Amino acid sequence: MVTLKDATLAHGRGKHRQIVLDNITLELRDGERVALLGRSGVGKSTLLDAIRLELGEKAAWCPQEQGLVGALSVYHNIYMGRLERSSTWRNLRNLIRPDPTAWQAIAELCHLLGIADVLRQPVESLSGGQRSRVAIARALYQARPHFLGDEPVASVDPHQGDRLLTLITERHGLCLIALHQRELALSHFDRVIGLTRGRVALDADTSSLTLEQLDALYRS
Ligand SMILES: Nc1ncnc2c1ncn2[C@@H]1O[C@H](COP(=O)(O)OP(=O)(O)OP(=O)(O)O)[C@@H](O)[C@H]1O
């Protein structure tokens, strides 16, 4: 479904060009749940960007930096997941008078994610874990066939991480998610892609992997 063949992923141009991943070949298939692991700075976000480019609007996107608007309510932040589907006029009206259909759908999502009690609150008043759930809710509200996430469950507790990953994976075909919790990688995913030093060091079914093998990705 998505294929990168002998791809070199880099940042910058000319003498400022920095190769992050060199000559990598990957094939991602519909229905696969893939965990993306590796030390900080190894290139997980860079790889996700390249896959996003391939999938375009077919993939919901939950970015690492979240991109939430602090002064706006949880409802309005989640509504932004479908902003492009409505006219500017309708979106502006929604700022003052929430659209009843959108409100109901977003309230249901928030209930599932355990943030229904803060639906009307500005995002700037939430905890880090609550913000993560708002960012995930916004991506789920996009209702796209596939899901790409850059450490979406980094700041939630293990129990919540478990629940959130279940919600994400049961609603999407291909899921490619960067994370650092190795236990969650083994329990929620079919496949692990591990990056080290500019290359794909591991690409295997989780059924054949142990925590020790995943730990090795984090050693220098
Ligand atoms: N926009 C950019 N311009 C130049 N270099 C960049 C840019 N974004 C990332 N890099 C560099 O590319 C390399 C890989 O970064 P990337 O963000 O993909 O790593 P990561 O594995 O996602 O890290 P983390 O786990 O900390 O989020 C790093 O050396 C980083 O400094």
UniProtKB/TrEMBL annotation:
UniProt keyword annotation of Magnesium present: no
UniProt keyword terms in alphabetical order: ATP-binding, Nucleotide-binding
Pfam families given in the database record: ABC_tran
Membrane-traversing stretches: none
Gene3D superfamilies: P-loop containing nucleotide triphosphate hydrolases (3.40.50.300)
PROSITE patterns according to UniProt: ABC_TRANSPORTER_1, ABC_TRANSPORTER_2
InterPro entries per UniProt: AAA+_ATPase, ABC_transporter-like_ATP-bd, ABC_transporter-like_CS, ABC_transpr_LolD-like, P-loop_NTPase
A GO molecular-function descriptor: transmembrane transporter activity
SUPFAM superfamilies with a match to the protein in the record: P-loop containing nucleoside triphosphate hydrolases (SSF52540)
GO cellular component: plasma membrane
Protein name per UniProt: ATP-binding cassette domain-containing protein
